[in-house]
Amino acid sequence: MNNRYIYLVFSKTGTWLSKIIKFTTQDKYIHVSLSLDSSLRKMYSFGRTNPNNPFCGGFVVEDLYSGVYSKFKNSTCLIYRVPITEKQYEALVKELDYFLLNKNKYRYNLLGLFFVLINKSFIRKNFYFCSQFVSEILMKSSIYSSNKKSEFHKPMDLLSIKNKEFIYEGLIKNYVLYNNYTNVI
């Protein structure tokens, strides 16, 4: 029985890195995060650890309403809700707790971004980019399956999750209004 939900948040900001990735991939959304609740106040991913410093990256707990998202006012997002079982939820929380407890060990896999573009594996211990992280923990939690290894996943690849439910697409700054006036979530 599906009695829990997770939320996948695909986004695009105006950072120089997001512009480069968008240009090279031509993908609409170039970042992905996951949240355990619809408020999206705690979204887990790999990205900037300091919104003002593009060179510091690692495991991050993002907030859709602050940080890099508030810095770039025209940031856009696509949000899906995914029903999961209690067992999957517990496995996912266990994975997230491990990253939270050890967050200082992890770094952003900037080089891995370029290797995924040329379809070459490049793995460094404790280095992840956003979609590599999200796909790996979803696979470890039996929420998502793929023949593709996590280091080859781009954010848009996660749209292949079959039981996802569309929630919202548009400007991030408008999501708070949408979320306040709908009972979809």
UniProtKB/TrEMBL annotation:
Gene3D superfamilies: endopeptidase domain like (from Nostoc punctiforme)
InterPro entries: Papain-like_cys_pep_sf (IPR038765)
Listed name of the protein: Uncharacterized protein
